[in-house]
Design goal:
3 strands, alpha+beta, 17% strand, single chain, 3 helices
Length: 77
């Protein structure tokens, strides 16, 4: 994206920022267009849900369940 404008999505303010306005924290990006940045939270949530439903997340779900039962990550590993 060098030489062209890029955009970021600020999770705190829930607004789209140009690259020159980008704060150091609480942002997603970069995106090629403001529209892509605006849609990024929904896309991120969609990907997270798909991952949670996949087999890849199984070890992490097991760790979360163990932690809820009072086990520490060290006990689980």
């Amino acid at each position: 994206m060098s030489g062209s404008q890029s955009y970021w999505y600020n999770l705190t303010t829930q607004s789209v920022l140009r690259a020159d306005e980008r704060p150091s924290e609480d942002t997603l990006g970069p995106f090629a267009t403001a529209a892509e940045a605006e849609e990024s939270p929904a896309v991120l949530l969609e990907h997270a849900r798909a991952w949670l439903e996949s087999e890849e997340s199984e070890p992490f779900r097991e760790m979360a369940e163990a932690e809820a039962e009072g086990e520490t990550p060290a006990d689980y590993l």
